[in-house]
Amino acid sequence: MNKFSDDTPLDSVVKSESKYLSQVDLPDDSLVLTMNGFSQEETQGFDGKSETLTLMHFLGDHKPMVIKPTNRDILKELGFKTAGDCRAREITVWIDHTVKYAGRKVGGLRLRAAPVPMAPKEQHPNAVPRQELAPDPVQPPGDDFPDSDIPF
Predict the structure, then answer these.
(1) pTM for this one?
(2) 44 CB contacts (<8 Å, ≥6 apart)?
(3) Number of domains in the chain
(4) Are 65 and 109 in contact (CB under 8 A)?
(5) Is 94 helix (H, G, I), strand (E, B) or coil?
(6) What whole-number distance in Å separates Cα of residue 75 and Cα of residue 37?
(7) Helix-strand-coil percent breakdown of the chain, rounded to 5?
(8) Is residue 130 part of a domain?
């Protein structure tokens, strides 16, 4: 076990930057990314035991995301059956502030379907563009209105 000396700055004891995608990497609580495959990596857990992490990689300059069973199940619910199904597909990574760890709300990354862009509305082939319509007829007030029997 490595121990820190009493004069070690806390920023050196607990590093805030992770080599994996984390909450601090997401602007506005979510980010749409393009999936680019999976890998596994051996790492040492907090308890010193070796652990195998499954990582989802993304196109572009983004850190890989650790995938646990909950996010794997979300991918399956979204219709992805194999690792290849995910390649080159967009996904939204978002911060779920209700995620708990050891009984405390700590927040965590979750996946959801990326927003689908709206297709342009199709016009009926006989539709007349708005600017080509004749203006509404307006009669100016004046003497050309018929007299009315209604007293005002």
Answers:
(1) 0.67
(2) 50, 51
(3) 1
(4) yes
(5) strand
(6) 13
(7) 15, 30, 55
(8) no
Please give the torsion angle defined by the CA atoms of residues 48, 50, 40 and 115, in that order, rounded to the nearest 10 degrees.
-40
Structure tokens at 124: 């009926």
Structural domain harbouring 73: 28-113
Q: Copy the structure tokens of residue 33.
A: 């990314």
Token pair, residue 37, equals 């495959």
Pairing assessment for the beta strands 30-44 and 90-96 based on DSSP bridges: antiparallel
pLDDT digits (tens, 9 = 90+) for 20-64: 999 988 988 999 999 999 999 999 877 889 999 999 999 999 999
Give the integer Cα–Cα distance in Å for 66 and 53: 6
Q: Is residue 152 part of a domain?
A: no
| Residue 6 forms part of a structural domain | no
Q: Is the pLDDT of residue 6 over 90?
A: no
Could you give the angle at the alpha carbon of 80 between the alpha carbons of 77 and 82, nearest 5°? 135
